[in-house]
């Protein structure tokens, strides 16, 4: 694992096909993502809950998505009863930081250590080692649904070798992304599997690897990333995830690393993430396409002005109050609009 060599990576037709489709979606996102800011926020909220729930459950947490959502709604309370809640809060805040500031977070060892500290900021048991590379061995274990360890997946790098291996990995990744000799998605795949093989921190490596993958995706222009959960895709194929990691990681220290199993899993997961978002967007657009012209005009007005009233639409369209009332009622019923205020002061915003 001293020197990273991706020369043994076999770029098959399937890998090329997956990359081409993901990149095509990346290019089309601007057109596809022309949803109202409120809809985008709603998509991001759902994806964020899925990501946080899945990423912490992969590591043995028991919190459901609805429990995660409840916790996120009360994050400001900053009082977390269980270790699971502490982990979720730390992951949530770090994800938000990545979404807000990815342009200002380059891939450096300092930032990686800082993000590790942030992920575990609420975790009492990790207080001593957060933000620092490991000082004792930490082999990777697999857990079942009940949180019981079901075996060692992989023997990781020794603490003594970790700083040097991390320096090499970060240098290689940045160099590979700058020179563009390898497609950025392949570079990210090599980075993630090598990072997890090193397992540089005492705890939190899995969560951090997924946060760093999100950071690299955003930095490489995959701006749709926050709106669809990659972690949820991985959780749904957890056995495949561990198997692909194990198959590649057992060869990483040899002269001929076999990147294939992991890279294929990684690209399929990214493709699945993209497909899920594509489906959601199609649903959004089809929903709108099925609406009558008058309803579309009401929504358009709400989108442009942030709000809409019945009176405004009567003046704008010349349509009778009763007809418009019917349209407003259906739009509220189908959650396109939300009614605010009471009596004469009633107004509507996008749902």
From TrEMBL:
GO terms for molecular function: ATP binding. The record marks 59 as: Important for autoinhibition of adenylyltransferase activity. Signal peptide: none annotated. ATP binds at residues 203-210. The active site is at residue 199. Residues 107-268 form the Fido domain. It comes from the Bacteria. InterPro entries: Fido, Fido-like_dom_sf, Fido_containing, WH-like_DNA-bd_sf, WH_DNA-bd_sf. Keywords: ATP-binding, Nucleotide-binding. This is Fic family protein. It comes from Desulfomicrobium apsheronum.
């Amino acid at each position: 694992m001293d020197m990273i060599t991706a020369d043994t990576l076999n770029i098959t037709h399937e890998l090329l096909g997956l990359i081409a489709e993901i990149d095509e979606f990346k290019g089309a996102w601007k057109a596809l993502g022309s949803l109202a800011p409120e809809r985008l926020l709603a998509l991001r909220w759902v994806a964020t809950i899925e990501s946080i729930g899945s990423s912490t459950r992969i590591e043995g947490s028991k919190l459901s998505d609805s429990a995660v959502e409840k916790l996120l709604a009360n994050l400001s309370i900053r009082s977390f009863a269980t270790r699971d809640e502490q982990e979720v809060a730390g992951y949530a805040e770090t994800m938000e930081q990545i979404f807000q500031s990815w342009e200002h977070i380059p891939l450096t060892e300092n930032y990686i250590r800082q993000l590790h500290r942030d992920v575990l900021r609420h975790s009492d048991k990790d207080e001593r080692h957060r933000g620092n590379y490991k000082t004792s061995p930490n082999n990777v274990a697999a857990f079942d649904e009940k949180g019981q360890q079901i075996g060692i997946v992989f023997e990781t790098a020794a603490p003594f070798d970790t700083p040097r291996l991390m320096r090499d990995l970060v240098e290689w990744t940045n160099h590979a992304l700058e020179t563009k000799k390898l497609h950025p998605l392949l570079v990210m795949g090599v980075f993630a599997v090598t990072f997890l093989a090193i397992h540089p921190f005492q705890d939190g490596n899995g969560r951090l690897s997924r946060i760093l993958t999100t950071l690299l995706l955003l930095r490489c222009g995959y701006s749709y990333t926050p709106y669809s959960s990659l972690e949820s895709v991985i959780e749904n194929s957890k056995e495949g995830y561990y198997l692909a990691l194990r198959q590649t990681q057992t060869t990483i220290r040899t002269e001929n690393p076999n990147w294939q199993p992991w890279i294929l899993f990684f690209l399929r997961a990214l493709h699945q993430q993209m497909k899920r978002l594509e489906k959601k967007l199609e649903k959004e657009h089809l929903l709108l396409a099925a609406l009558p012209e008058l309803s579309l005009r009401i929504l358009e007005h709400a989108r442009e002005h942030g709000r809409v009233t019945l009176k405004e639409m009567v003046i704008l369209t010349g349509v009778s109050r009763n007809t418009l009332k019917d349209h407003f009622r259906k739009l509220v019923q189908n959650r396109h609009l939300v009614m605010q205020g009471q009596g004469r002061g009633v107004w509507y915003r996008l749902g």
